[in-house]
Amino acid sequence: MKSGTIKANNFSHLTAIERESISFPAKILRERNLLLGDILDFGCGHGVDVESLKTNGFKITGYDPHYFPNYPKKLFDTILCFYVLNVLLPEEQKQVMMNVSTLLKPNGKAFFAVRRDIQYEGYRLHKIHKKETYQCQVKLPFKSIFKNENCEIYEYQHYTTLHQGNELISPFFKHNEERELITETVNVFSIYDKFPVNPGHALVIPKKVISNYFELTEAEQGECWTVVNKVQSILQQQYHSNGFNIGINVNEAAGQTVPHIHIHVIPRYTHDMEDPRGGVRNVIPSRGNYLKQLGIYE
Q1: Strand arrangement of the beta sheet that strand 263-268 belongs to
Q2: Where is the HIT domain (predicted)?
Q3: Which residues, 6 or more positions from 111, have their beta carbon under 8 angstroms from its beta carbon?
Q4: 175-291 maps to which CATH number?
């Protein structure tokens, strides 16, 4: 989460509480029989919930970039993410959301617990560690299943699972078909193209239904490109491509056929076409190879 240009809260891990018993959100979910199947505690801190639930017969794994850094290599039925988002900057929060969505099975559920007792947002000096740590309020557009003055618990499912077959949400859900989610943030999701031009051809789509990319706000556009970067990383690992084309069709004259903005992320492979030179310029085939037109090569 701290690689590249992501702005990070370097001391967020110092906020992990060294508890001796199971956390309050875990108790609530256990009482409601919501801890099902293979469980992942994402951002588990010192791992107290993991050990406590294991002792009680639950099949649970913990991941924390600082304390349990072995990143999971499979998908889970249930994912817990307790009080993690409150101590992360917005860029880091997006990374957590994408990672959780990617690790969740298509019909699985994730539960995000956030604090509701934060009085001051921003950096503060940690009382014990004497380091500048960050905290903020977090509100999510997911189903709230519990709330009191100290805590709120949200239930998350894949956007594609929640809205399968619902054309009112997006024309991409027009037919009652399963659309495999690649990853998502609060405002953007990604699926595989129904008619791929190459293996791994993906679409990055804002949840806001609008046809013209340039009518998105700068923040909305930025979140789209955050997801593009994540999708490219996922596709590279899965398909081992030799390159990528990234493109957006805006309006009918540019070839847009679905009135909901979508960014194409297309893996490219050596020899997938006779002459790839010109790349996206080949949207007008006779203009693609400008070097040949200039006589620089034949």
Answers
A1: 181-184, 188-192, 202-206, 263-268, 243-248
A2: 168-275
A3: 25, 29, 34, 78, 79, 80, 81, 82, 145, 153, 154, 155, 156
A4: 3.30.428.10
Distance CA 48, CA 81 (A): 13
- CA-to-CA distance for 88 and 208, rounded, in angstroms? 25
Out of 201, 262, 264, 271, the active site residue is 262
Question: Distances from the Cα of 140 to the Cαs of 49, 186, 225, 297, in angstroms?
Answer: 23, 7, 20, 55
Per-residue pLDDT of the chain (298 residues), as tens digits, is 334 456 777 767 656 666 678 999 999 999 999 999 999 999 999 999 999 999 999 999 999 999 999 999 999 999 999 999 999 999 999 999 999 999 999 999 999 999 999 988 888 877 777 778 888 999 999 999 999 999 999 999 999 999 999 999 999 998 888 899 999 999 999 999 999 999 999 999 999 999 999 999 999 999 999 999 999 999 999 999 999 999 999 999 999 999 999 999 999 999 998 888 888 878 877 665 555 554 555 4
Q: Is 271 a catalytic residue?
A: no
Going from N- to C-terminal start, the domains of the chain cover: 12-157, 175-291
Dihedral pair phi/psi, residue 152, rounded to 5° = -135, 140
